[in-house]
Amino acid sequence: MSLDNKEDIILFANTLWFISKFKESLIERLIKEKYNVKVLFLREGPSLSKEFFKSHKITCYSYSRFLSLYIRSFLNRKKFISKNIKLLSFTIGPIILSSFYPFNKVEKYATLEGLGRVFSSRKIYMRIVKLIVKRIYKFIFEKKYKAIFVLNYVDFAYLLENKIAPIKKLNIIPGTGVDSTK
Fold first, then answer.
1. By the 8 A CB rule, do 113 and 91 touch?
2. Which one of 34, 35, 102, 137 is CB 3.0 to 4.6 Å from 30, fit for a cystine?
């Protein structure tokens, strides 16, 4: 299956569960706006019903399956990813992985739904991880991402004060995408 429709949007997160629980209203809005939504995840996470994805005809790829399909299409000289795809990455792993091949030419957006325990932990090894992540974020946010979304002013200020992301790319959004009316 090809992802070369000019209106494709890929949502990429650590778990399929995260997308199912927190991005359902976003997916419904994108579908309503005629986007072809695809989901990419590192692992499934806690057990969940995949009925929402099936009912909306959303293709879900594990990251390993996605890479194997990509490599197979590359070897067969077929285009698997067009430059017209928009990639929305959530959580630290997918945000970093999205900056590498095969996504290096697609339009990317990162959403930091809190900087997480890597940035708040006092443990020595987590401080080392934080230094590494800060440097990676600084590079990819400057060079690879079109925009970065945060959910609060504290994270916004932290990214600016530590020169991790340029102000022109930072945006604050009011919430994670949970529809509280359901």
1. yes
2. 35
Range 42-51 burial, b when 16+ CB lie within 10 A, else e: beebeebeee
Q: Among 45, 51, 11, 50, which residue's Cα sits nearest to residue 31?
A: 11
**What backbone torsions phi and psi does residue 81 show, to the nearest 5 degrees?**
-125, 125
Which two structure tokens, joined as six digits, stand for 87?
A: 């990639």
Give the position of tokens 């995840």.
Answer: 41
Nearest to residue 110, comparing CAs of 6, 4, 11, 20?
11
Cα 16 from Cα 38, distance rounded (Å): 11
Instruction: Kindly report the three-state secondary structure assignment for every residue of 4-66.
Output: CCCCEEEEEEEEHHHHHHHCHHHHHHHHHCCCEEEEEEEECCCCCCCHHHHHCCCEEEEHHHH
* Distance set, CA 12 to CA 1, 28, 77 (Å): 18, 16, 25
Residue 180 to residues 21, 24, 25, 91, Cα–Cα distance (Å): 12, 11, 10, 22
Q: Write the pLDDT tens digit of every residue in 26-71.
A: 999 999 988 889 999 998 888 777 888 888 889 898 988 888 887 8
The structure tokens listed for 105 are 């030419």
Would you tell me how many other CB atoms lie within 10 Å of the CB of residue 32?
Answer: 8
Summarize pLDDT for 83-113 with one digit per residue, the tens.
Answer: 678 999 998 889 999 888 778 778 999 998 8
